[in-house]
Amino acid sequence: MTATWLDFWQTENEFDESMSANYAYFLARVETLAPLTPGTRVLDIGSGPGNLEDAWYNRVAELHGIDISERYNALARTKHADHSTVFFHDLPADDYLNFSVVAGRQFDLVIVMSVVQYYRNANEAMQLLANIKQLAAPGAKALICDLIVEEGVMGDVLSILGRSLRQGQLLTMLKLLFRLRFSDYYEVRKQNGILVIPESVWLAGCKRLGLNARFIAEPLTMQQERRNLLIEF
Hints:
Blueprint: H1 5-8, H2 19-30, E1 41-45, H3 51-56, E2 62-67, H4 70-79, E3 86-90, E4 107-113, H5 122-135, E5 136-147, H6 153-166, H7 170-181, H8 184-192, H9 199-208, E6 212-215, E7 227-232
Parallel strand pairs: 1-2, 1-4, 2-3, 4-5
Antiparallel strand pairs: 5-7, 6-7
Helix pairs in contact: 5-9, 6-7
């Protein structure tokens, strides 16, 4: 039995097959906020199996994915072995806010997709903001997506089911939710919880760090109840 979120992402899990649906929804909308150019340098924090890299590898100058999961990084490296501008870096599982693997680089676009809810506390989320600030090039943008800003599991579930229906993915999502209920995910969530950080805390943290940030009105993921933070440097 996996005991923590860190353990959960090191093994095969129910999200392996379902991430692509949420990413497809995100990819269809993100460029209205952050247009890509051939010179764009992208940092993907929590890159997983490389869904973002699969879509953008031939559209930008560089893509750097960082993740705690050695399994996901191995899968992603195999897929992109022939792509010289795509890189995947291992984060220490016990020090996942240590971004020294990309120290000294600057990025034009930073994506953090559905990661923060697995952090341990709000202080870690504020450290994430500070890390991004250090890595952002002048004029860069960062999108921290899929943030849970208030309690309410049922609202989250109903939201994703509604969007899945409109996207023709309802059956796939129902199967995923059923599997999650009887999987390690349910037990790990019960033991460790999900991090909820109100919008006011995010905005206050950005203000302390001197970041120009706002929550955007348009949903970027299939979880409409969740929020997406845009930071412009």
